[in-house]
Amino acid sequence: MQVNRVPIKHGIRWIAEGLRLVRQSLGPLSMLTLAYLFALMLLTLIPVVGPAAPLIMVQVLSVGLMEAVRMADRGKPPPLSTLFAGFRSYGSVARNRLIGLGFINAAATLLALAAAATVDDGSLIRVATGSMDSAELQALDEQLLWASLIFAALYLPAQMALWFAPIFAAWHGLGIAQSLFYSFFTVWQNRGAFVAFMLGWFAMAFASSLVLQAIKWLAPNTPVLLSIVLTPLSLILMTALYASYWPSYRDSVSASEP
After folding, report:
1. How far apart are CA 183 and CA 104, in angstroms?
2. Coil, strand or helix: which one is 253?
3. ∠ CA(185), CA(243), CA(76), 5° rounding?
4. CA distances from 234 to 149, 168, 204, 242, 245 (A)
5. Which of 72, 127, 168, 191 could form a disulfide bond with 174, CB atoms 3.0-4.6 angstroms apart?
6. Per-residue pLDDT for 17 more than 90?
7. How far apart are the C-alpha atoms of 225 and 49, rounded to whole Å?
8. What is the pLDDT of residue 132?
9. Closest CA to 123 of 133, 55, 153
10. CA angle 178-111-93, nearest 5°?
11. Backbone Cα Rg of the chain
12. What is the pTM of this model?
């Protein structure tokens, strides 16, 4: 396995590739994205461990999602069952490593949230779990800003280490420590492209919000119209976001794949 250094402009190209893949395989990829989000939502209903369960299982499910996008890029429509490839396609050793990565992700997330709670009394945790109403949210703007910055700063190294780690564990048979190390190293080597990638998606989200605000201004008091636009737009953008992870791997890593 060899890590490639890619130009900064590749970060924007990954977004374009994600949109291309969605246009090419909109039906299968959007259905897989819905199934992925629905599976994570169902995991939150598990008693006691519900809030942490999606943080653990997301590492396993993300392998299936990447496998589906890779199939779509090769012109093969991915079946819905591809989502569960991380559980059944790479053997028990890889599956256990993916679950181990999930526990690391859960621990990193909870530690970052706990650190953020020192400045906002746990408000960010309540936002993340959907237990805060809009009136409280507006009253805590500054606190939430600082808490979000603390969370992002602390979780960013973990995100870098976990970005490619599930793929390295499943597709390349690397151990947990190796997967984390090579993922962090790969992202760091191409940090310019990943910053461009992140900023590009922020710009896409901002542009989408402007479209929605324009609809609200042109057609006030029309929640049905807003939902008609918002639902498919959100799904397409979410699917394109997940699809764009694949070209980030494809360009950054040279290796034989299964």
Report:
1. 14
2. strand
3. 115
4. 25, 29, 11, 12, 17
5. 168
6. yes
7. 38
8. 52
9. 133
10. 30
11. 19
12. 0.85
- Which residues, in sequence order, are CB contacts of 189 under 8 Å at separation 6+? 3, 5, 252
Flag the least confident range among 50-59, 76-85, 114-123, 245-254.
Answer: 114-123
**Listed residue (107, 118, 126) closest to 149, CA to CA:** 118
What are 78-89's pLDDT values in tens digits?
A: 999 999 999 988
Quickly state the pLDDT bin for 156 (edges 50, 70, 90): very high
- pLDDT band at 136; cut points 50, 70, 90: low
The phi, psi pair for 121, rounded to 5°, reads 55, 35
Helix, strand, coil abundance in the chain, percent, nearest 5: 80, 0, 20
Phi-psi category of residue 10: left, alpha or beta, with phi > 0 → left and psi -120 to 50 → alpha = alpha
**Degrees, nearest 5: CA angle 27-31-37:** 150
Over the chain, what is the mean pLDDT? 86
Ramachandran area for residue 206 (φ above 0: left; ψ -120 to 50: alpha; else beta) = alpha
